[in-house]
User: What shape does this take?
Amino acid sequence: MRLAAVPILVALALSGCAATLSHIDVDKSQVEMDSLAESDNLDADVASLAKPLVDSDETPGIIVGVLTADGSMHFYAYGYADKATLTPLTPDTIVPVGSLTKGFVGAIMDNLVRQGVFSWDDTLKTLLPGVPMSRDAGKITLREMATHTAGFPRQPMTPELLFSFIHYEFTGENFYRAFDTPYMLKYLDDFDSSPTMEPVYSNIGYALMGYIIEQRTGRSLEALLQQMLTSPLGMRQTGFELDALPGHDQRAVGYAGDHPLFLRRGTPTPDFHLTHIMQATGGLYSTARDMLTFAAACLRDDGSPLSKLLDDTMRVRVPEVRGATGIAWFVDHVDGEVITYQEGLIGGFSNYLGLDRTHHTAVVVFRNSFNWDFPVGHRLLIRIAKAAKIDGHLVITGIEKDTRKKKDN
Assistant: This one.
């Protein structure tokens, strides 16, 4: 059965037809949606959603961070960061966050636009003078790349990718390893498409954005990240350079889940060592605590320049289409609730960051296995929203949590 699935999955991976490769699960019934309102016990509700994933061996470990409306942070960890050493997951365990990286790169670009370094209407032709590119590629704007409406597929559709992806299904090794800077720039010369109002999720757009940022500013993404975001927010364990982060020697191990197809579920998988130009698409490392700190900053409305910047990245740029996006953010409407979110799939990890801007709550979920489904984040945010509407408060009782409030920056 797994052999028969290869052609389908390769086609899916290469097609780039969907906004995301994963499946966002939501509660199927009103009873499920109202469960938290009935129990008034967030701890028990998180456990009911997350713990079975570890108990059933779907994932070696999972950590859930919840930001409640009062500004408190609560963390719930199940299973292991490393099965070999039985090291538990904690709020400070470092993981590669995959495409959650795009939210930070998008914010950096948004800030540079605000500073006048770029305009959202700048085209690739003017941004990359001297780089041979097709007429279609030359007309693409920064706004279109940032909102996944440039018409780029998920990644270059080439024989190299096909062979690398098949190799990945047997070994777990990075199938983006051929995508270095010359390869990505050469792709523009043969690009044949046109921008579309319908979002088509693309790593190409963010790879080029990162490259353009570094070329124009003469500074690395790491330096800009620290200056604009992680230092002001006190995110000490977030960055592109793993070895420079406190606690890097205790980072989580990634494991096979739904993929790679021909590695037994629960087998350790190798790290994805991305080329420099691909760092902007998914090269960031972080922790649940740092990502929830970032979420809190996104929800903060204190009139500061950073608050205004993050708010702007979440503003939907194409509201009239299904799957509308902000700058790197996607927006879902579920049973009257609006969820703004990002996902990050890389190697042996599946990550989620979701915000309910109406109720000022957020959820971060890290799993150290590759899985298509995201059954916790959306469901939990919606349950919290329903509970808030019914009784206006939650009683936090019991297990593994951290309620230290973060100071405003």
Remarks:
- DSSP finds 16 helices and eleven strands in the chain.
- The longest helix spans residues 203-217.
